[in-house]
Specification:
Keywords: Lipid metabolism, Lyase. By secondary structure, this protein is an alpha/beta fold. The protein has eleven helices and nine strands. The longest helix is centred in the N-terminal third of the chain and has 19 residues.
């Protein structure tokens, strides 16, 4: 697994997630994403961040298999705290974050993108929060930043996905381009941002966060409380076993 962070000469920092086969991040992976964004926030040479991924899709959320092969609740608590740290780092990054989304963006991926400042996507990109299938709740806070309220509820309750092209009408996705052009599209937006005085842009980021009507950090932590309840009730473990193809009774 690799989370890389490269600062270009023009002040654009490119943070890349690469964790085959589907970019479902381990507990450490979420903390690594958070660390990369925190580094960008404190580095005054960084003017804007492009958050992207290599591989089949942008992000498939939490590594369910890691959770199911760990006894007790350590992996669950680690995933909760790691996701919270990563989402918070994107939202509170001192410079704008441009998300470049390819392929699938599910669960935790929506948490990252929903907290980004600008989203561009490839024509094969789609978004979803299939948490109900695994007995978890979360990222509704962030999906609600991408689609209207009733659409968010429909996607959440049904575990359906929505194409990137359908998000353009809501203004949450700036543009959809062929996959081969995705990085260039993200860099074009980032270049426009980097062209301005970074002192003003950093002030603008703090200002816009300050007038946000929803406290995304508190809202997401509220969701995580229900995930813990479902885990304590045994519901989540049962559904994750089905998803991961494991049977703890046989181990």
């Amino acid at each position: 697994m690799a989370i890389t962070s490269d600062l270009r000469d023009d002040g654009i920092r490119v943070v890349t997630m690469e964790h085959p086969p589907v970019n479902a991040l381990t507990v450490q992976g979420w903390y690594d994403v958070a660390a990369a964004l925190d580094e960008a926030a404190t580095d005054l040479d960084t003017k804007v961040v492009v958050l992207r991924a290599e591989g089949r899709g942008f992000n498939a959320g939490v590594d369910i298999k890691e959770m199911q092969h760990t006894t007790g609740f350590d992996a669950l608590i680690g995933a909760n705290k790691g996701c919270f740290a990563a989402f918070k780092a994107v939202y509170e990054c001192a410079v704008p974050v441009v998300a470049a989304v390819n392929g699938f963006c599910l669960g935790g991926g929506v948490g990252l993108v929903g907290n980004a400042d600008c989203v561009v996507a490839s024509d094969d990109a789609f978004f979803g929060v299939p948490e109900v299938k695994q007995g978890a709740l979360g990222a509704a806070t962030h999906m609600a930043r991408l689609v209207p309220q009733h659409m968010m509820r429909t996607l959440y309750f049904t575990a359906r996905t929505i194409k990137a092209q359908d998000l353009v009408q809501f203004g949450s996705v700036l543009e959809v381009v062929p996959r081969a052009e995705l990085d260039d599209a993200a860099l074009r937006v980032a270049t426009d941002i980097a062209a301005h005085d970074t002192r003003v842009i950093r002030a603008a980021k703090e200002c816009l966060n300050g007038i946000d009507p929803i406290d995304v950090n508190k809202s997401y932590r509220f969701e995580q409380g229900f995930t813990m309840e479902l885990n304590l009730a045994g519901v989540s473990d049962e559904l994750r076993d089905q998803f991961a193809g494991t049977d703890k009774a046989k181990r």
